[in-house]
Design a protein that fits this description.
- InterPro entries: AAA+_ATPase (IPR003593), ABC_AA/LPS_Transport (IPR051120), ABC_transporter-like_ATP-bd (IPR003439), P-loop_NTPase (IPR027417).
- It holds the Pfam family ABC_tran.
- By secondary structure, the chain is an alpha/beta fold.
- It folds into 2 domains: about 160 residues, Rossmann fold (3-Layer(aba) Sandwich); about 80 residues, no CATH class.
- It is about 35% helix and about 25% strand.
- The strands form 2 sheets. Strands 6-7-8-3-9-10 form a 6-stranded mixed β-sheet, with helices on both faces. A 4-stranded antiparallel β-sheet has the order 2-1-4-5, with helices on one face.
- Helix 3 packs parallel to helix 6.
- The longest helix is centred in the middle third of the chain and has 13 residues.
- The structure holds adenosine-5'-triphosphate (ATP).
- The site of adenosine-5'-triphosphate has 12 residues, from strand 2 and helix 1.
């Protein structure tokens, strides 16, 4: 579903991504782990289209999307859940989901209340609100909901574009252990045919939600395999200086 081949990226003399390749099958949930500075975010930005790789290709459902913009990739089914604040604070949760769905379905018009009334848009909003447990908050303004609900909504907005592949950059950063657990449950309850790639440095999340794990170190893939194998890997213990055993 998503295939990266030989992605290479340098900033001046700093070689940040080194010949990174991986393949995600449909429905696979893969977590990319790595210590600070390993190049995770730089890799993520190449996949979503915010950075152009110096070398290598990105294929989505068999199509080469390496030359496409962020929006072009989104149209092909690659959606990103933003950590950055991309929600409309003055609008309700329902309106935020509706706008994403309206843009995706081509129903976005100047009079956006009309867009939100379209049956196709309403259907997506209801489906996504259920998937990410937002039903109780639909009519609340984003500015009034908790940080945790905002994070759920960010995932919901990404899902409202009906992606084939969902990318997330450190989805539980900044949330406490309880909320983090709720987020793990949310991820585990998403449709099984959705392919998910998560960049993370929290090993708990990786072991809880991942089917497969890739570990980056100094921009290079040093592990690619099943979570059980990752747990037993000496190399990974070294990279994480013992913290691995606490995972
Ligand atoms: N635009 C840039 N210009 C120069 N160097 C950069 C740029 N972006 C990233 N780097 C460098 O590339 C390296 C990898 O950074 P990156 O943010 O991709 O790592 P990371 O694994 O996501 O780290 P973290 O977990 O701390 O977010 C770092 O040494 C960083 O300083």
């Amino acid at each position: 579903m998503l295939e990266l081949q030989g992605l290479d990226k340098s900033f001046g003399a700093v070689h940040v991504t080194r010949n990174v390749s991986m393949k995600l099958e449909r429905g696979e949930r893969r977590v990319i782990l790595g210590p600070n500075g390993a190049g995770k975010t730089t890799l993520f930005n190449q996949i979503v289209g915010e950075l152009t790789p110096d070398k290598g290709t990105i294929h989505l459902a068999g199509q080469d999307v390496t030359g496409l913009s962020v929006a072009g990739r989104a149209r092909q089914g690659l959606s990103r859940s933003y950590q950055k604040n991309t929600l409309f604070d003055g609008l309700t949760v329902e309106e935020n989901l509706g706008l994403a769905a309206a843009v995706h379905t081509g129903h976005a018009t100047r009079l956006w209340s009309d867009s939100l009334a379209k049956p196709e848009v309403r259907e997506i909003v209801a489906e996504v609100a259920n998937q990410v447990n937002l039903m109780p908050y639909l009519h609340a303004k984003v500015s009034e909901v908790s940080y945790g609900v905002r994070r759920q909504l960010e995932v919901g907005v990404a899902l409202a574009t009906r992606p084939m592949v969902l990318l997330m950059d450190e989805p539980t950063s900044g949330v406490g252990p309880e909320m983090s657990k709720g987020f793990h449950d949310l991820l585990n309850n998403l449709p099984r045919d959705l392919t998910i790639l998560i960049i993370e440095h929290d090993m708990d999340l990786a072991f809880d939600v991942a089917d497969t794990i890739t570990v980056l170190n100094y921009g290079e893939v040093v592990f690619d395999g099943l979570p059980e194998a990752a747990r037993g890997s000496k190399l990974l213990k070294e990279i994480y200086l013992g913290s691995w055993e606490d995972a």
